[in-house]
Amino acid sequence: GSIRAGEDTKNSLMRCTVANLRERCTAAGLDTSGIKADLVARLLGEAKAAPTNEATEDAAPVVAEDPVTANEADGNDHDEGNAVSMASDAAPLDASSSMDVDDAFLAHVRANPSDSAALERLARLARAAPIPAARAMFDALTDACPRSSLLWQWYIDAELTRNASGEPDDDAIRGLFGKCLIPCPSALLWRKYCAYMASTHDITSEEGVATMKSVYEYSVDVVGEDADAADVWLEYCGFLRRAPATLIVADVKPEQAESARDVVVRRCYQRAIMVPLNKLDVVYKEYEAFENEKNKALARALLQDLAPKLLLTRTALGKRKKAYEGVVVGAVCVNPAQPGADASASIVCAGFNKGACRGCPRTHECAFCGATSHGAHECSSKQYALLAKDPKACASQWAAIIDMEKSNPQKLEGANPGEPSPQLFNRVKHAYELAGLSLGETPEFWIEYAHWHDSEGRTDDAAEVLQRARDALPYCALLTFAVADLEESRGNAEACKAIYESVLDDYESATAEAIERGEDVTSMPQDAVLMYCEYVRACRRVEDQTSSRKAFMRARKQPGCRWEIYATAAMLEWQYDKSDKPARNIFELGLKHFLTSPQYVERYAEFLTGINDVANARVLFERALEESPSHEVWNLFIAFERAHGTYETIVKAESRRNAAFGATDVKVNLLNALLGRHTVMDLRPATSEYCDYYASLGAVVPLRRAETAHVSYATLRSERLARAAVVAAIPP
Hints:
mainly alpha
């Protein structure tokens, strides 16, 4: 139509197709010849010459079409696989209800990337703010949740539709797509990309057709197996049908281009129909119409041949819909080990959302909808916009989806009998990738994903997955060990060592920098100690004694080296080579630093008694008691005498301990002595009733293994959380 003053700029016009630009030039009485740039220049000149002209017809869209609402004009339903997220998109937030976001809030989110309440609140505010104000909010969110396709969709939508300048920033939009497409293989996100690229390229030109063809082909390769990929397939087929045939199939004679293009379109439709898409019926009807339009007789034969495969696809689709019910692709499950996960430092009051706040300076708003009038316990929606409602339930749902895809409900087969199906592989892989959008902050997801590859002989793929996991969770030691184990299982000694060395190099560099800054580095962190111990052990397994000794020498030179490293190196010498002299030398070397450590003394004593050197073990305890007469060392010494000494040495050791700690209650001392001396394995010299009675008197009753087995990390964690809950319930 005619040009309205101030509405069209060069950027917005360049996103229109050449055909639309020519229509607008015709309506404005302008020349329609030339390339796209010529048409845009004429329209811009007309806009300046006639600033008050009224539009006489609808203008072409200047931004990419929203994938959620696309195809509604054709009567198509929304994709069912992401119904929850679409429902949230359908109810836009009121910008007037948003609160100002200050730098302190953004800094809090960056410092506490697992503060789920803060993330949800910031997401609500970002979706209500215009560009550029929303950019800082979205940047903080995507830094905390880089794999959430939901976040990236909202960010891109904001850039496309809510730029305060009135026109999208193409450079910013392309930058966002460059950041999010590869990490987030969501069909809804990729369709936004395809729609944006289609709006900025002329499909009547050779360059435009080549670009869009590669865009669509790459997209269906990445997300073509997605349940929500129907729109990508339909747009791809539509592009192939609309673009000039000579540009779609440039390697045939011009007179054969139409028939060759029909073959390409047919192949594209048939590929789409082999995928259990939420809009499978729409795709099939469009394909059926295409074939009938070309040749009804041929269409009948082709559709009849396709019927059995279509039936299997529908069967798989039914199972897919059931598995995906209630799943929101890209919903965030925060990292349970990162700052903010326990909500203790959250700016949003957890007590308010439980109806238990007694007054505090934190923000009081519903964790679900953001209302200040009620907490989450009274919210009617009970649905987050960004977060998964229950991380454990989310993980279970994705596990069920992956298991469903592995079961091969479509009965896909390879090219030859007995061969695996590439399509099934891509489908299961895509299910894992979609699960990673939500579960990528949890190490067990990556470990299972890599195990799937490894169990089917794809060790390179498994290594690639674990490397991605380490990039996503750089402080998770378990992932480092998983990668090292994988390389060791492949017999790649150098790669196995390199995994450990990369971590240790970073630690040693950081330690050296800390020393240069004048910081006190007297104790090595536990994770670094474990890494050195495992490095020494791995070197012995994958190479030889010399390699493990070099690794030990490297470790013991580090500031704050701990006793575990010495004990590990010493025991390796004995366990692998049955040579007690090198092991004894390492233990003695460690005694110069760790004679006051009961754990180190215990390990050395166990080694000495293991090689039947009881005399030196007794000397070791005497040296330790002289240096540090602690309860732990005395208990170790008495246990040693009870196992290896005579009655006289046992009684003497017990008497010395009682004297050292002023234990003057004769009855309790005698009970402790008898109970300790005469307990053999799980056999105690007293019934349960007597044990209770003796304990009530203050005696120490030895525990059985079955009793100590009940003390697990899980029970200790439960007790710790229970204590924390009691403390939190105390009024301020």
